[in-house]
Design a protein that fits this description.
Shape: elongated
CATH superfamily of the largest domain: FAD/NAD(P)-binding domain
Strand order of the largest sheet: 17-16-13-14-15-12-18
CATH architecture of the largest domain: 3-Layer(bba) Sandwich
Structural class: alpha+beta
CATH topology of the largest domain: FAD/NAD(P)-binding domain
Helix content: 25-40%
Largest sheet: 7 strands, antiparallel
Distance between the termini: 18 Å
Strand content: 25-35%
Number of domains: 2
Number of strands: 22
Bound molecules: flavin-adenine dinucleotide
């Protein structure tokens, strides 16, 4: 049996290796349009490659995918985070878990992952062809004909692992075969706030904020970073991922509200203020910050609430206290545009999951055609989830329908 895998990224490599592992007598061709393999793996995670996320519960793991949640929940039954850890460790690449549960190779170098995948493919005799841009594929007389620049190849099965396409045109060849395509849109971006003075605090961060999209139920928690352009950090990126479609529809012109105290509720907050009044009521508000907020941010929020920093706590009228509470909990910002997050950019959209069987990754539209990785309408938030989707779907696609 001859199998062609199109695209030598994370999903394509994993799929090609999986075909050989499950079908040792097959002949596997791995076609790559550029002269480089695993290019994103190399630059990923700031050169360290955030391979996966230490989440061993498949249901919770799937919740980190704004698109593809249900589909991946099924797929994780066949290959999940434990399998990824075991797969790499059994090939000599130990992974370590950081405090936020992101997993990296112990070497802190993406080269360990690249080398592992390249060595494995080489050992299994996967035939790599660089500089082969697959222009079209056609099903003729019970086989697939792949057409590329200088020729064509006939194979029995194809696995498409061409990655995310920022433009719909890049998916036209798959659409022409009868697949539905979900309009590609960027995911994982920071918010631009050109008119917001908070940008003067660039570099300031809080560990646990909650950001809400005004006029919707969308919200996200986590660290938040104030940048030269506006806001970034895990909470913002998560909101950008879950809100990718809504925010695109709004042309990235919207409002969000920040709760700077993340997990604290209003009752707890009022108790904290009561204690401050009792214990240090004579201290100036600007000098006595009762929260773990950076001083500059605290001063900014107090001033934004039209309260004098030099006022003693005990002289704070109820009306002003309520204003401060409102700023801490519902601080509103106007967003005008986005900046793509350079560290881990992904595309939302791609081949519609309705046209793919989650148990096999097989196309429901064409015979002997499978998909793996970001070419599908699957994307995760930051933290290693996107590679986990590539390993899982690549592994399953490589079974070629077998269990
Ligand atoms: C800078 C950056 C850092 C990232 N860091 C992380 C991280 O640390 N952790 C994480 O989980 N995710 C990370 N991601 C996301 C992750 O890299 C992707 O989700 C993942 O690479 C998708 O794998 P893939 O194999 O589906 O696609 P890709 O890695 O994009 O591979 C697709 C391959 O197909 C080739 N190709 C495309 N069309 C054709 C064609 N017609 N013919 C032949 N070849 C073709 C492309 O050249 C490419 O090599 C990062 C992304 C970026 C951009």
């Amino acid at each position: 049996m001859k199998v062609a895998v199109i695209g030598a990224g994370a999903a394509g490599y994993f799929a090609a290796i999986s075909v050989k592992a499950h079908h040792p007598n097959s002949e596997v061709f791995l076609f790559e349009k550029t002269n480089k393999v695993l290019a994103k793996v190399r630059v990923s995670g700031g050169g360290r490659c955030n391979v996966t996320h230490h989440c061993l519960n498949n249901r919770l793991l799937a919740e980190n995918y704004p698109r593809g949640q249900k589909f991946l929940k099924t797929a994780f039954d066949q290959f999940n985070v434990s399998d990824t850890i075991g797969w790499y460790e059994s090939r000599g690449v130990k992974l370590k878990t950081e405090s936020d549960n992101r997993m990296f190779p112990e070497s802190d170098s993406s080269e360990s992952i690249r080398k592992c995948l390249m060595d494995e493919a080489l050992n299994l005799k996967v035939q790599l062809s660089l500089n082969q841009h697959i222009m079209s594929i056609d099903w003729c007389a019970k086989e697939w004909v792949l057409t590329f620049g200088k020729g064509e190849e006939k194979v029995d099965c194809i696995i498409v692992a061409t990655g995310g396409s920022p433009k719909r045109q890049g998916l036209k060849w798959l659409e022409d075969l009868g697949h539905q395509v979900v309009e590609p849109q960027p995911s994982l971006f920071s918010f631009n706030m050109p008119n917001e003075p908070i940008r003067e605090l660039m570099g300031v961060s809080v560990q646990q904020a909650e950001v809400r999209l005004v006029g919707s139920k969308l919200k996200a928690n986590g660290p938040l970073l104030i940048t030269h352009w506006g806001m970034s950090g895990p909470a913002i990126l998560k909101l950008s991922a879950f809100g990718a479609r809504v925010l695109s529809d709004k042309n990235y012109d919207f409002s969000c509200q920040v709760n700077w105290l993340g997990n604290t509720n209003e009752h707890e907050l009022r108790e904290i203020f009561d204690n401050v009044l009792k214990e240090v009521g004579n201290r100036q508000i600007g000098n006595k910050n009762p929260f773990e907020l950076p001083t500059r941010l605290w001063e900014y929020l107090v001033t934004k609430s039209s309260i004098s920093l030099s006022k003693p706590w005990r002289d704070l009228p109820k009306k002003e206290l309520n204003r401060l509470i409102n700023t801490l909990f519902n601080d509103t910002y106007e967003i005008r545009g986005k900046t793509t997050f350079k560290e881990e950019f992904v595309t939302a959209g791609g081949v519609a999951l309705d046209d793919i069987d989650p148990d096999t990754m097989k196309s429901k539209v064409c015979p002997n055609l499978y998909f793996a990785g970001e070419v599908m309408d699957i994307d995760g938030i930051t933290g290693g989830f996107n590679f986990q989707a590539a390993w899982t779907t690549g592994f399953i696609a490589g079974k070629l329908g077998g269990r």
